[in-house]
Inverse folding.
């Protein structure tokens, strides 16, 4: 797994925010709007992806497990191992809904939908 | 432990960045400039604190363990359980040095200096 150029592991949140995200078909699906942090567990809950008008969902955002983002230096953005159809059908939230139930509602639904192993126990 | 108003656990990185940080004497010591994220472990490595001219260190930044930041709603900022003298003598880094050795140099020195239990194993 590789990340932002020159860094294999540490990446500043301010550099992550604004980075483009591509799906497995190589189509740009949106950008990282924010990263949700877990105050109590020291874990990164999920990346908040905004899809703009691409999926026709207006102001809705997706929670994507941090571990699903793979930095592609050639594209200059993250690639997620999900298809356009998968992303289209994924749970989407308003910004306020993302932090509902301490962020666990969006987090749990996201990890479940994308079948990513939870980082919490 | 409490965090940003209304959230007990989930907090967006963009809301953390720019927040003031106070020491145990109630003095504002600086602001959160960034949050360093660990791509591989899904962990939050540390908060990057800029002290401006306050400690007379120019462009140097401190790595503070995420778990050491306690949000104080009355002050509208984070309080760290460290004195002015402790912070003054703490390891400080340029922005580039913070990501050296995958961020582990600054991270390990910080957790060691502030005697915070590592989140990694």
């Amino acid at each position: 797994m590789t990340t932002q150029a020159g860094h294999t592991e540490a990446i500043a949140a301010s550099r992550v925010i604004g980075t483009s995200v591509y799906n497995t078909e190589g189509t740009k699906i949106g950008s990282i709007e924010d990263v949700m942090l877990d105050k109590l567990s020291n874990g990164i809950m999920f990346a908040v992806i905004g899809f703009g008008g691409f999926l026709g969902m207006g102001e809705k955002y997706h929670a994507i497990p941090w571990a699903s983002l793979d930095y592609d230096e050639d594209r200059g953005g993250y690639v997620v191992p999900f298809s356009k159809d998968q992303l289209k059908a994924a749970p989407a939230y308003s910004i306020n809904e993302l932090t509902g139930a301490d962020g666990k509602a969006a987090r749990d639904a996201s990890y479940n939908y994308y079948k990513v192993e939870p980082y919490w126990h």
